[in-house]
Design brief:
The structure is a single chain. It contains 5 helices and 2 strands. It is elongated. Strands 1-2 form a two-stranded parallel ribbon. Helices cover 65% and strands 3% of the residues. Helix 3 runs antiparallel to helix 4, helix 3 runs parallel beside helix 5 and helix 4 packs antiparallel against helix 5. The two termini are 56 Å apart. It folds into 2 domains: 39 residues, no CATH class; 83 residues, no CATH class.
Length: 153
């Protein structure tokens, strides 16, 4: 059975070249020869192949880079301020599910999201503030989902 782009070498290719009881030296030779041929054919195939999803991966990479670049802009609240505002907003929900409280929480979350988050450390390597900012963006999305779900109930 043939699968485009799938290659096997050595014993896994099961060529039967040396019969049922090959000598160890012959196995090594078979692995070298079939590995070399499989590698050449795989390289040739890969150089002309359009891998499924490659365009989508490039688009997502570009979107992620834009998202990180936006965190380094001069717009938005510093990470610590945004985190404190989110924490304060979410404390309102604790044990309190009346509609006016939920509306305040949703408004706070919308305000934090609209103003954006800003990283103050300009480094792009080993930047723990950047990690915190990305984490905070996720928490904002979760908080928004929680508050809107509470409103529906």
């Amino acid at each position: 059975m043939w699968y485009t782009g799938l290659y096997a070498a050595g014993r896994s290719a099961f060529t039967g070249m040396h019969g049922g009881h090959p000598l160890p030296g012959n196995l090594m030779l078979e692995e070298l020869v079939t590995g070399s041929e499989a590698g050449k054919n795989a390289a040739e195939w890969a150089s002309t192949s359009l891998f499924g999803g490659a365009t989508r991966m490039e688009e997502e990479l570009s979107a992620a880079q834009s998202r990180v670049d936006a965190l380094f802009s001069s717009e938005g609240s510093p990470v610590g301020h945004a985190a404190k505002a989110l924490s304060t907003a979410m404390r309102i929900i604790e044990g309190n599910s009346d509609q006016s409280s939920l509306a305040v929480v949703q408004a706070s979350i919308n305000e934090i999201s609209a103003s954006g988050i800003r990283v103050t450390d300009p480094s792009r390597r080993m930047n723990t503030e950047l990690v915190s900012a990305l984490h905070l963006e996720g928490l904002l999305a979760i908080a928004g989902a929680i508050s809107s779900q509470e409103e529906e109930e």
